[in-house]
Design goal:
Structural class: alpha+beta
Strand order of the largest sheet: 2-1-4-3
Number of domains: 2
Order of helices and strands: HHEEEEHHHHHH
Shape: rod-shaped
Distance between the termini: 97 Å
Strand content: 5-15%
CATH topology of the largest domain: Beta-Lactamase
Helix content: 55-70%
Oligomer: single chain
């Protein structure tokens, strides 16, 4: 009799391990797909998780991530639950929870192995989220690189100056405006899509502001004027001419400094 009970316990334990392994395998298949949208992956994982638990028929799962909740339809939040954190770069970004839907008077206990299973699933989800994050960052970088490659070289230089050296950016804009006046290109209207860059939109006193220090309160206004100047140049000069002048002025500033 004892031997029969012992064999039954062993078989039950093996059956539970089989359920856990099958659960892990199916979830791993889902999370290893890089092309799968996050919502779709999470909903599939939620549907699989209960089958890895001892009492699957009353088990529900829930993922909380970025203020979004993915859970088993009809989930009932109860005090009988297990929980594990989702972590990316050492910071908690969400939670994975499993609940038993208990009726009055019922009492079920989770197995220790089930907590380890939940922790393993949470780790796999965290890796999946981290990979998604890295892939998005890489895609953004590739897009930014492509955008820069598509731009004329002088625009890349000007954008870099605007971000890192505003004073030099403004100096180049002033010299470019003076150059446009000198060659008589400031009366030319921009094409319809760029009407904001007409000469009349550029304040006259800006042209006289050549070597004076720039007051902080005026910088935002000057940056906007400079943007219009570069737009005006883009529509009245060819890219090589703009680039040669910018390179010359940067070299002159470097020598004078």
């Amino acid at each position: 009799m004892k031997d029969d009970l012992h064999i039954k316990n062993i078989l039950n334990s093996l059956n539970e391990r089989k359920k856990e392994l099958n659960c892990i395998y199916r979830i791993s298949e889902i999370l290893n797909s890089n092309d799968q949208p996050l919502d779709e992956a999470f909903n599939k994982v939620i549907a699989i998780i209960p089958f890895g638990w001892q009492y699957s028929d009353i088990c529900s799962a829930q993922i909380v991530y970025n203020d979004q909740i993915y859970q088993t339809p009809g989930l009932t939040v109860s005090s009988c639950k297990q929980e594990s954190m989702l972590i990316i770069d050492g910071k908690q970004v969400g939670n994975l929870r499993v609940f038993y839907d208990l009726k009055a008077g019922e009492e079920y206990l989770f197995l220790e192995e089930e907590q380890r299973l939940l922790n393993t699933i949470a780790e796999k989800i965290s890796v999946f989220l981290h990979r998604k994050k890295l892939m998005k960052a890489l895609a953004d970088l590739e897009q930014a690189t492509q955008d820069y490659r598509q731009k004329p070289e002088w625009q890349t230089i000007i954008e870099l100056l605007r971000r890192t050296d505003a004073d030099n950016y403004l100096r180049i804009a002033r010299k470019l405006m003076n150059y446009l006046f000198w060659i008589g290109r400031t009366d030319t209207e921009c094409p319809p899509a760029a009407l904001e860059c007409k000469t009349r939109d550029i304040e006259p006193e800006f042209l006289l502001f050549t070597n004076k220090p720039i007051d902080r309160q005026d910088k935002d206004s000057l940056l906007e004027q400079s943007r219009k100047i570069f737009l005006l140049a883009e529509n009245n000069l060819d890219d090589d001419e703009i680039l040669l002048n910018i390179q010359k002025w940067l070299q002159e500033d470097k020598v004078s400094f």
